[in-house]
From TrEMBL:
The chain crosses the membrane at residues 137-157, 177-197, 204-224, 230-253, 265-288, 357-377, 389-411. It comes from the Eukaryota. It is found in: Membrane. This is Major facilitator superfamily (MFS) profile domain-containing protein. It is a multi-pass membrane protein. Gene3D superfamilies: MFS general substrate transporter like domains. GO terms for cellular component: membrane. Keywords: Membrane, Transmembrane, Transmembrane helix. Residues 139-417 form the Major facilitator superfamily (MFS) profile domain. GO terms for molecular function: transmembrane transporter activity. Belongs to the major facilitator superfamily. Sodium/anion cotransporter (TC 2.A.1.14) family.
């Protein structure tokens, strides 16, 4: 019975190493049941002692045992341990080189205690790794992709306006009117978007904004063919959709992301805007060169519908509304968030009387003025004054914006240090 001795010795060592990692009140119970089940299982595959004795003292053919290891065969035993949602699986193998019992040995054990871990739900179902990804960071990634699409749809007109003005004979005044019409709608929904997000939830408001501006983007070529007034209305509608994005995003992240993770999440989401500018200005010249200027609006607008379908399936306005959120993550979010009462009245007089508020307003105004002037008019400047074609404008913008993103990343790292 040497094989039982060796196998039990190995199993005991493995079980002991696992059991000592368990909570104290579970150690003895887990070890007892695992050891008894594993040893009983091995005994069922071991020759009876009397048959082994007869094989050694008699020259007659040995009787057939009830169950035995095949000659030169390998036997595998797998032990599984489940505790508090964690599953541990380890494997022991043995080899039978002959008939002599003393030559049985444990061999070819690649890893004495190799554990396979995975989250186990009720019923013993292993949850895939992508479902274990924190749900709050799924919300952050979706908000990042929404801002990516936001700036892609915003800046594509800066490139497409060049072949459009040549096709429809627009003068610089008309071009300026078309470019500014976006901000007519954008101005209207900045404050209203925050109020709507507090009232009906950030999920509905942000989803409405993305699908609204995506439809307006896809309708831009149709409106341009119908006439200038239709194009101005469509561009203003696009601004209405993008105006609600930022307040709705802040509403969602304030509920989903703990205080200790908000700076990282906001940095990721806002970087989507700059990456969207890089992507839009880099791919628009290529699409215009290959398929014509309407392809820019059709392709970019269709991406919003894909995002919207994912958003409806995965996102919720609050962790309390998500029925699939794991209890431990919900506990983490709620215990590390600052509770606050819903805002019913906004103290405008108190806010506008504070000098820091005006300092932020002035700085933000100057930043946006410079940023949008460059995004809107620099392609036209390089085309009309420097003679660059649309295709080369994409290469230039790609270099400049990648340089900008690199500098922002470097300065952010320096500020962190």
């Amino acid at each position: 019975m040497a094989i039982l001795y060796h196998l039990n010795h190995v199993l005991t060592n493995i079980i002991t190493s696992v059991v000592f990692s368990l909570p104290l009140h579970e150690k003895q119970l887990k070890a007892f049941f695992i050891a008894m089940n594993a040893r009983a299982f091995l005994c069922s595959y071991t020759p009876h002692p009397d048959s082994l004795l007869k094989q050694r003292t008699s020259l007659s053919p040995p009787p057939t045992p009830r169950k035995s290891f095949a000659s030169a065969a390998r036997f595998h035993c797998q032990v599984r341990l489940i505790s508090r949602g964690r599953r541990y699986t380890f494997r022991v193998s043995a080899r039978n080189p002959g008939l002599k019992s003393e030559q049985y040995e444990i061999s070819d054990v690649r890893e004495p205690a190799k554990f396979k871990t995975g989250e186990v739900e009720d019923g013993g179902v292993v949850v895939p790794w992508w479902e274990k990804f924190p749900k709050r960071w799924v919300i952050v990634v979706l908000c990042f992709s929404a801002f990516l699409l936001c700036n892609m749809d915003r800046v594509n007109m800066s490139i497409a306006i060049l072949p459009m003005s040549a096709e429809y004979n627009w003068n610089p005044t008309t071009v300026g009117l078309i470019q500014s019409s976006f901000f007519w709608g954008y101005l209207l929904t900045q404050i209203a978007g925050g109020i709507w997000a507090d009232t009906v939830g950030g999920k509905l408001v942000l989803g409405f904004g993305v699908i609204w501006w995506s439809i307006a983007t896809a309708l831009t070529p149709v409106a341009a063919k119908l006439g200038l007034p239709y194009l101005l209305v469509v561009r203003a509608f696009m601004g209405i959709g993008e105006g609600v994005a930022m307040p709705a995003m802040n509403n969602i992240l304030s509920k989903w992301v703990p205080v200790s993770e908000r700076s990282r999440s906001l940095a990721l989401v806002y970087s989507g805007m700059y990456l969207g500018s890089v992507t839009g200005l880099a791919f628009s010249p290529f699409l215009i060169h290959q398929f014509g200027w309407p392809s820019v609006f059709y392709s970019f607008g269709s991406l919003g519908t894909v995002w919207f379908a994912t958003w409806l399936n995965k996102a919720y306005s609050s962790p309390l509304d998500d029925p699939q959120l794991r209890p431990e993550e919900k506990r983490l979010i709620l215990t590390n968030s600052v509770p606050r009462e819903p805002v019913t009245t906004i103290p405008w007089g108190l806010l506008l009387s504070q000098p820091p508020v005006w300092a932020l307003i002035v700085c933000h105004f100057c930043h946006n003025w410079g940023t949008f002037i460059l995004l809107t008019w620099m392609p036209t400047y390089y085309n009309q004054n420097q003679g660059l074609f649309v295709y080369y404008l994409g290469l230039l913008w790609r270099f400049l914006l990648i340089l900008e993103v690199g500098l922002r990343t470097l300065l952010s790292a320096m500020a962190y240090l």
